[in-house]
Amino acid sequence: MVDQLPNRGLETEMLKEMGFSSIDDLFSDLPEHVRMSEPLPLPPPQSEEEIIADARRLLGANLAMGEAVSFLGAGIYRNYVPASVFQLITRGEFLTSYTPYQPEVSQGMLQAMWEFQTLISELVGLPIANLSLYDGSTAAAEALTCAVRVHTRKATQSNTVYISELVPPDRMSVMHNYCQGAGITLKVLKHNADGTLDIDSVHSAAGSCGVYVEQPNPLGILDGGLTQIKEIIGKNTALIVGVQPVSLGLVEAPGNYGADIIVGEGQPFGSPPTGGGPIYGIFACSKPYLRLMPGRIVGRSIDVDGKEAYCLTLSTREQHIRRHRATSNICTNETLIALMGAMHMSLLGPEGLEHLAYRNMTACVLAKQKLSEINEISVPHISSAHFNEFVIELPRSAADCLKYLDSVGIIGGFDLNRWYEGRNNWLLVSVTDQTKAAEIELLAAHLAVWCSMKEVFA
Amino acid sequence: MVFDEGGVCLSRLFDFAGGTGMGYSQPEPLLSKNKVTLPPNLMRKALPRWPRLSEPEMVRHYTWLSRRNFGIDTGFYPLGSCTMKHNPRVNEVIAQLPGIADIHPHQPEHHLQGLLSIYHEMQHMLAICSGMDDVTLQPVAGAQGEFTAVRCVQEYFRKRGETQRTKVIVPDSAHGTNPASAAMAGYDIVEIPSLENGRIDLEALKAVVDDTVALMMITNPNTLGLFETDVPEASDIVHAAGGQMYYDGANFNAILGRTSPGLMGFDAVHFNLHKTFSQPHGGGGPGSGPIGVKSHLAEFLPSPVVKKRPIVGDEAKFAVDDMWYTWYEPEHTIGKVQQWHGNAGAIIRCWAYYRRYGYGLKDMSEHAVLNANYLRHALHREAKKADVSHMFVDGAEAEVAKHEFTISLQPAKEAVGVSAMDVAKGLLDMGYMAPTVYFPLVVPECMMFEPTETESRDTLDTFAKDFAQVLKVDPQTLHEAPITTPVRRVDEVYAARNLCLKHPFDEE
Ligand SMILES: Cc1ncc(COP(=O)(O)O)c(C=O)c1O
User: Fold this and answer.
1) B112 vs A60: CA distance, rounded Å
2) Could you report the per-residue pLDDT of B331-366, keeping only the tens digit for each?
3) What CA–CA distance (Å, rounded) separates A197 from A356?
4) Is B81 in the pocket of ligand 1 (CB under 6 A)?
5) ipTM metric
6) Which chain B residue lies closest to A216 (C-alpha atoms)?
7) CB-closest option in B63, B103, B498 to A62
8) Domain limits at B488?
9) Do A245 and A114 share a structural domain?
10) Rg of chain B over all Cα atoms, to the nearest angstrom
11) Which domain, by its residues, includes A408?
12) Most B-contacting residue of A42, A46, A113, A279 (CB-CB within 10 A), to test interface
């Protein structure tokens, strides 16, 4: 019996008061031939106890990364999220509220999102941030369409944007889906053998609407060359940079080297990996993009008594007002997860952020050093600085290596053949603040064992 | 400490910018910091001006903020079109289990059999409830579901060579995301007027349907909470011209187990899982917006979807039953609309919610409709008793409403100058969340109520009495409302003219 219906048992009385005799009367407006004649062919209702037991059994069959030793990243990272974040987010006033349409009783969420905008703006070095898009990929895709809206009229390469060829195919696919309707052409920017962006190829992007690059790039490389792009493309082409936000504790904010729009996966701040969602997309920009940007924005205002108060603002960009001329179709976003991000960021503070970035980076330095000591393994981009991850080149296929590592309880990383054709032997190894020195030793030892095997493992 | 005019203490995060707090202490890095080298031009020169709070200060700040916010847990939240039902707490507990919180979307299938089996179960259940053949769980909100379905339809026509189909028909009473999603996919929008009660105008539809139409998008029950009885006819008209029919399922709470988009002749539908299946809305998100499609559209669905087959060999070690659950790429997939596997954490919560009901999902929608009709009845009853029944009329003539209904406060506006917004603000003072106001646009001075199935009759009766009391308040006082809330009416024009989108720091 379903236990969520307070009026169970009162149906007849309530119907009678309205002058009806049965529930069917309330559905009398359904044409006969569209009515469902049979009960739903679904199992019976369960009690809370049964559901939680089933959930434990089924979800227990998944291998949580914490039960293994994991070096898997490639866009979603396992960072520590402080306990108070999880405790505070369960407060029903946050959890069970909706979009703050009535600002007088939504000041808490509105102020928290205004503070989130400030935290992100400070982090990336741009004056404006919205209060989240769905994820990093949709944020990147919306940045492209935004850049086209702003620049296409003056562009010599109208309706065209340039994207780093390293951007993973899944993210590219999202960009394609979001851009194809506006007839936007996506062109690629080449990379050098050392994994850095081919700066000469950036010249071809001058006169287009935008350039999209990532820092660190999808191979984990921190590319100093990206700081030259803005000078090459000029002010009529948007520089869009995708970031891993934790890295910005050490790495220059792209806003300070000419980025016009900055996007990224906010997930490492505030959210566990959660199978890839719900997480939140960061979107920040400079003033010329403000009125054509996607997503909700909170502004500080005053109430009728002149008291400090917050409300949604610039909504004339949005679908509920502008309908098919809106800058985006987004309505429901990821506010609650962004709030978790804000909580995490405010606990860190500036020095805590820097320390966290150091922890992530030193783990990377250590792992790179240990793995490069294995004779059969090379680190193709060894001279670059890396954040969170780097490539190792194996003597045989990465897929086989991952199977072996899995058999000894290690999630070894990401097989780059899934992104880049022909990179069969490239493994993307990811470390975070959660990686222990002993785990790196363990990975190195098992990689050495696998390398010394004479034939395929699986 | 900062105090406002009334002496109320304000907590502002950036007042802590000059603080000394360190919210949580971290372990030392694995190597000394000087082992880190960066290209000199990439060294960050100045840290962000983030606040410095200790944990107790941070906890108090966010607790203070939460007390200035209204949620379903705080009180009755009859926000129409948003389905603000109770969020069972067991779902939150389940979503924190490491088997969902600590898994990575790129883990191999044998690490994720539990997740994949739950995805499969959800796809199956949603297919049954919607009368569709295939389902994807990838879209992360209703609007993204719409966009995904429009893209599938677009590729379907491209594959058939019907590229002259450049239009999507949307009634003027549709939610804004419908035209926005179709436009994002590159379609021209043809808006058709609705009849007085928000229903589809079949004549207007006939006038615009031809072989340039790709799709018609319909919300049913419509945004006035009325069942669109002419939907099967509309569907015939569009299909006869070779177009497709899309069902905006935001209002599924009204029809589950009673009818389905499949029975009504639709080709594609989205669910707002966060509404119908109770993922908490969290101040505006997250959500989850799966879509269901008929078999002719299935090959275009985003990748991957989950399929199952009997287990072989040593798969039994990892399996949750005698089936193997596997990611599958539809043959002509549109690719991805979100980079990962949708909002897995939301889908788990909605799965737990579904398990609570099973075949009893029908009871859920019956109670949602019962409560909406009862509240409509009670509002009139109490208004009569309090002698304010001349202040409003039904937004649409109908014997029964579905899960929500509208009223028009136009009479109040004309008689005493009280607007729907005034009444909404008056309700805030009574401790309620206001219903949706000024949507749909086709009803003047509109107020839209959706009580949901999880409110008791007592709550509905009390609310109806209080609503009548608000209408009795003298107009001048109501213009001043709210007075008991953390702030009073917020100046939205001021916010737009004096843009302040972040803390101004030294400029202040
Ligand atoms: C009728 C209708 N359609 C579509 C949507 C969009 O859904 P979402 O907010 O999940 O993107 C909503 C809700 O906001 C709605 O009420």
Assistant:
1) 10
2) 999 999 999 999 999 999 999 999 999 999 999 999
3) 27
4) yes
5) 0.97
6) B42
7) B103
8) 361-493
9) yes
10) 26
11) 66-78+349-452
12) A42
